Task: inverse folding
């Protein structure tokens, strides 16, 4: 799929939560996870995660739901820990 087709398909997917590489990295760093650990939770390789974080590639649609689940769960657990302190 060429770039324009991908952009249009992505725009037409209202259920996809868009998480950029900076957000993935920020959550990963806040949790004190390595790229390898975060990649394992998402189900991708470390180089794939690294490419997302620096913005050289965007996550494929098939990974977006899982990324959102992982980011949301990590954030929820970290916030719960902070509230207990």
Result:
């Amino acid at each position: 799929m060429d770039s324009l087709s991908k952009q249009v398909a992505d725009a037409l997917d209202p259920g996809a939560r868009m998480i950029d590489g900076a957000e993935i990295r920020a959550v990963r760093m806040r949790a004190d996870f390595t790229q390898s650990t975060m990649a394992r939770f998402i189900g991708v390789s470390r180089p794939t995660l690294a490419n997302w974080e620096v913005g050289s590639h965007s996550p494929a649609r098939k990974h977006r739901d899982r990324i959102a689940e992982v980011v949301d769960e990590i954030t929820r657990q970290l916030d719960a820990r902070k509230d207990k302190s």
